[in-house]
Amino acid sequence: MSFDTPLVLSGPLRKPRQMLAEQEYGGHVSIHDDAMAEKLGFKAGPIEGPTHFSQFVPLLEHLWGKAWYERGCLSAHYLNMMVEGDEVRAFVQVPAPGATSTRIWAERADGLPVLEGSASIGPDDGPTLLDQRMAKLRPPGKLLILADLHVGMKGAADEKVRMDPDQNMGALYPFSLNQKLACITENSPWYSDPAASPWGRAIIPLEMVSVLVEYTSRQAKFPVKGPAVGLFADLQIRMVDGPLLVGEDYLIRREIVALSESKRTESYWVLSRVYDAAGSTLKAEMLLNHATLKHSYAGYAGQDV
Hints:
Blueprint: E1 8-10, E2 24-25, E3 28-29, H1 34-39, H2 57-64, H3 66-71, E4 72-78, E5 88-93, E6 101-108, E7 113-121, H4 129-135, E8 159-161, H5 177-181, H6 206-214, E9 230-239, E10 250-261, E11 265-276, E12 282-293
């Protein structure tokens, strides 16, 4: 080639749906409820961050084929919240021949950045965007909401999970896989038709991996004080021996791998490892930065946050 000009793949503009208006945790509605969002100073209940992951999948399949579903990693830092009706486009920089990692980002139709991140193919893909962000974290000051947490804390017990097509995924995700597929921005027969899938089983869409992993998250019993409203600030999903399958039993083990704070939030970073039902084979990992809003917690009343 005579040029070294960076080339970019982009998908179409999409209008992701917001499906968490009835989400509930800690005995209260979440930031995805319009009234709660407005109370906290937001325009409306935002679209859940993992929803945007679906728009990258066709682009990454184009780059890496079937291997993307088996060993792919998408690592994202959220920049601006989107609400239902916003149009969003996904972008992937075309990697150099043989490269195992590349840059990704998403923008609203008017150019407002939605997220930035990296996509890669393991196992030798190097540091992801979130690996780099975590390496730069400064030790937090005195934490209030997260005062009883520490790095290295593990979930209370192994958690058994599965996702069937019509299974309601609970108070955190009050919908089923089939309900998601009815409005997902990028659908594939691989998500619902075992005969169409290269693995002979329907596979869980990338954006629904967080739903599977968070389904039993309360069982970890991490002592987060509340009530307080949280949001996803960073999310990374990595397939180790993927893809994850619909109707398959899995076992999850969790660990807090970082604590951090900003002027507005206290954050705990949880690494959730997804194993086969026997707990012997690692299938996937999810790294999630739970950012809790300081001004949503009564304990901060009267403090300058």
